[in-house]
Write a structure and sequence with these properties.
mainly alpha, 55% helix
Length: 119
């Protein structure tokens, strides 16, 4: 029992004080800010390739450029072999500068893509 407070402090320190958000969470109900952006980024990365039309809508809700860049690039990289090229390019176009260039390179390099079976 004496180590319970220590364990709680350790968990809070490792999590940065933030609570974990499930993929099914209602991100729109959260206050605007980093937590909501991370929530939407998590939801975006969980989308299947068949949800390609929902992906740009969800990505557009992410206001933080770093969170959006990571989420969009991760999604495009994982789904590139399973989505039409123009849809992947539209996702990359949501990014700016180096993030956009990196995303487009990943989209156009099929040998770097992951297998999307079941995605």
């Amino acid at each position: 029992m004496r180590c319970l407070p220590f364990l709680f402090c350790l968990v809070m320190a490792c999590s940065g004080g933030r609570t974990l958000t499930s993929v099914g969470a209602d991100c729109d109900a959260m206050a605007a800010g980093l937590d909501r952006d991370v929530c939407n980024g998590t939801r975006l990365k969980a989308l299947k390739a068949a949800d390609v039309d929902q992906a740009p809508v969800l990505a557009g809700k992410i206001t933080d450029p770093m969170v959006r860049g990571e989420a969009v690039t991760t999604w495009v990289e994982a789904k590139a072999n399973c989505i039409p090229p123009e849809k992947g390019q539209a996702m990359c176009n949501l990014l700016d500068g180096r993030d956009q260039s990196y995303c487009l390179r990943r989209l156009s390099a099929p040998h770097l893509q992951q297998d999307c079976t079941g995605q």
